[in-house]
Amino acid sequence: MKKFIVWVLMAAVLPAQPLYGEIVDRIVAVVGDEIITMSDLNQAFEPYRKKIEETYREPELGRALAESLAAFLKRLIDASLIEQEAKKNGISVKDEEVTAVIKDILGRKNISMDDFL
Q1: Are 36 and 28 within 8 A, CB to CB?
Q2: Which of 50, 73, 69, 52 is nearest to 61 (CA)?
Q3: Can you say whether the dihedral through the CA atoms of 35, 46, 78, 65 is positive or negative?
Q4: pTM confidence score
Q5: Could you tell me where the beta strands, DSSP code E, fall in the chain?
Q6: For the residues 76-84, what does the mean pLDDT come to?
């Protein structure tokens, strides 16, 4: 009788489980031990997406977004590879050092930080 009750309970519970999986996010690149998800890519690309949408109209907009997103993903992969190699070789650079170099280069070219961004 116990087995029968267990089977009845299982039969009642199992159909309540979803029979399909829902994709919440997907992996677009694996770089060494790091993964880049579609949501990571979209979040990082968002400021560029807005500028592209302001610049282009259909039918060119779709192509411009696709090409730019692919190029941006390549840049993220390159940056990840560089970061992993730097870590492996014990190289570290502080954000302040990077900002100082960028400001120096922009100053020599008479470009403001706002214009650069």
Answers
A1: yes
A2: 52
A3: positive
A4: 0.63
A5: 27-31, 34-37
A6: 93
For residues 31, 34, 37, 40, the Cα torsion angle rounded to the nearest 10 degrees is -110
Q: Is 96's pLDDT higher than 90?
A: yes
| 26 and 36 Cβ atoms separated by less than 8 Å | no
- pLDDT tens, position by position, 29-62: 999 889 999 999 999 999 999 999 999 998 889 9
Q: pLDDT at residue 10 above 60?
A: no
Own/partner pairs for 82-85, CB < 8 Å, 24+ apart?
84/31, 84/32, 84/33, 84/34
Instruction: Please tell me the distance from the alpha carbon of residue 80 to that of residue 75, in angstroms, as a whole number.
Output: 9
Q: How far apart are CA 103 and CA 110, in angstroms?
A: 10
% of the chain at pLDDT higher than 70: 80
